[in-house]
Fold each of these.
Amino acid sequence: MNIAAPHGAPIDRLATFVADLRYENIPTDVVAKTKIHIADTLGAALAGARSAEFGLARKIAGQDGKTRLWGTQAFASARDAALINGVAAHAFELDDAGGCDHSGAVVMPAVLAAVSTSEQVFSGKQLIASVVAGYDVGRRVLEAAGGYDSHNSLGWHSTGTCGTMAAAAAVANLQGLSQQGCLDAITLATSFSSGLWAFIHDGSQAKKIHAGRAAEGGLLAATLAGEGFAGPLKVFEDVWGGFFRSFNKSSGEPEKLSDALAESWKVNRAVLKPYASCRGAHSAVDALEDILLETQQQPGNIVSMHLHLSEMLMEMCGHKGSNSMASTQMSLPYALAARCVFGTAGLDAYSSQCRSDPRVGAVMQRMDLEIDVAMRPLDEPVLTLLFSDGSRASRMVPRATGSSERPMQREAIDDKFRHLAGMSLQDDQVSNLLNLLDTLQHVDDCRRLETLLAGDADNQPTFR
């Protein structure tokens, strides 16, 4: 069944798409990918329930509520839980990317908070459709705002700015709002957009709150819209106070809000993250893996590493940090050094013990990073290794592991989920949750997830 082509301004067409989207409209392959991203987000969040940021954020929660704080036995109000669960999902940099940017961490906390507080019973099919709607809107707003490099290079963190609209659209679809209601939800959410890249300069934990704040803001916007609260209908036009002028200093490209609706499914643009670092570091780690495999060299044989990278990537991930966890996860040199020293750039390599290992610092001292002015902002780095036998090898990986061009295999996806979810759940709970998510389209009542997401993170040590 196809969705009829909507009419009107781009934002009107997008709102109609969100209002009309149902599970039956979604291609089978898109459903399959969406389920993977739902599970991936919940796995990342269950691990994130062991983070320092989750522990700090939950201190602001009130005592009353019926929305689960994932990985614990505790509950909070819907909005508090959306914020805190969003923090958990993004805490360890293992949630998906390539959407708004981190779409899963803003969409899933919002829609499950809505599920938990509604008198209506929502099926797995309804949940899937709402998530697809959220991914679509979040990415489309970012593309209309000039794309990741243009929007983020001005200092905005698109997870917090564009992600708010993603969460609003997802909840609006789930709640079955009319076209006008979906329009109000999305446009209201622009007033809750926030998130600055200033955290990058000092290892601040602020980045972790952006996903949660977007989930909370989107939930609030959709809830208000459902009550008839009107949004600013000119916010995506070339007007003073409009989203594009404010967040990109231009009129934007509003036609991208509705370009190829129901043809270009934006969840397909999202990528999984095998490494516990900013996505900007992943291609370099893949390049290291490829070179070591092809040359049959060992990390101990590397004399030096040289990286050519864009100015944007240098600003974002070029520092050789290994102090706070938040700062270290934004360090491309650390990710490479961790792979050399520990054999992995996964979460275990970011513990305080690993970060203080002198071998990591020694490897980073043998790295030379150079800005290539010919590179575009989102170009991936070129890694060159010099080995002790005098040989050299260079590699640039255009799209990192977890993308459609270099996909994670299903076994690796499931292993990641089991490892992360197992940080807060017992083994049998992990298996039951994964089985339910694998067959989510057959679930009649998504409140079953509330029970399966109850864990014992409170009795486990904080992962630092």
Amino acid sequence: MSKPSGGGAIRIAVAATSAVRRVGLESIIRSHAEFQLAGSFGAAASLASFARSTELDVIVIDSDSIRDVLLEPTSHAAIVLLTEISDARSISHLLRGGVRAILSRESVPEEVLSAIYAAHDGLVLLSTAAAETLAAVYGDQSLEFEAELSEEITSRETDVLRMLAEGLVNKDIAVRLGISEHTVKFHISSILDKLGASTRTEAVTLGIRRGLIPI
């Protein structure tokens, strides 16, 4: 998802049936200078109505009801969901329906912030439990298939890797690509995992060997 036009704040709406949890989400949004709390609701239906007439970047929902989250297409906003939903079918359904981050209700504010940044930048972020649930679904895949998936480097990750080779720091990479530093960190972590590298220097070396970085 592209950033707000003109470099403005990320417009966010929240919904939670629990007043306590709703106030907690509001506090997280208001405490961050790059965020703007556009609306807060106690019912998903009210949020859906609001989203149809308001330009939003991210929607944060606290709910265990899939119907609350996937009422109908309401906007192009990325959805961050705090929930206890844990079965693979429901998680897959949510991801196909536009949810970009699924977190546990026990997530700390920093995790919620990271999820908002990731969703806003078009990434998918899952809690460890949700990720492990989905991974279990593919347990019958061949080792060769899993290895092939784990080694695939995306075009955006290739861009980041090449900028690492240029010696750019996270802030410079973020500016050049028009994404947040949080997202840059996600990309670098993914690159290290996929290349089996423990440092940036090692990742660059492996990238050169694999032909990902022109020399």
